[in-house]
Amino acid sequence: MTHLAETLTFSGRKVVAAWASLPFPARPGCSLPDALCAHPQAVPWKLLSPCRAREVSGCFAQSVVLRGVCKERKPPASPLHACGSTEEALQRYLHTLFPGALSTSHVLEQPCHTQPPYPQFFSPLLTRHGFLLDKPPRYPSAAVESIPVLAALQSAPVLRTLLRGLYSELQRLNTRRWASFFAAGVEQGDFQEALEELRTLAQAYETGCEADESEDEADSD
């Protein structure tokens, strides 16, 4: 995980955000292009890192892995359907939503197995193989045995919120009340240096408009 994160961080960045879709929203018999075309404006996965962001606002680099959704051969209905493989379809989708970002993607046919002792916390709208139904079945279905899953790591501007929030919390600390902390060998100067490094790290995730906001915040400080 450390090596993967390092490949996604550059220009002074060191942190990545985690995203996941569990299960990935696909319907029975649905191909990957069908599932992706249902979400043309926003990615169908949720942020797991505590950045308090409700939607994707772009990214600098990302690695995406999808498993359990295959590409069915159908007449091309969109550029995604015309792709020759699931990997190509996912890569084109990522380039469309994140133009200019470094994106790597992998697609595995094998789904994620969810037999016991995996907790059965799934919606009744899921089939035994983890695909979405339009309405609950008339009779209770069997336990979910497998699900399609998408997971992603992103070096993205949303991390600025997390890092700036951490910097602000630490900045408000009254270090005089933590004598035992500094007695353990941490010098006040080292603490202040680490605090400034955290502020610089947060700035590395800024985009143009956010950089202007940071200048205003610095002036107010």
UniProtKB/TrEMBL annotation:
Highest taxon listed in the record's lineage: Eukaryota
UniProt GO cellular component terms: mitochondrion
GO biological process terms held by the UniProt record: mitochondrion organization
Residue ranges that the Swiss-Prot or TrEMBL entry lists as coiled coil: none
Protein name, per record: MSTO1 protein
Gene: Msto1_0
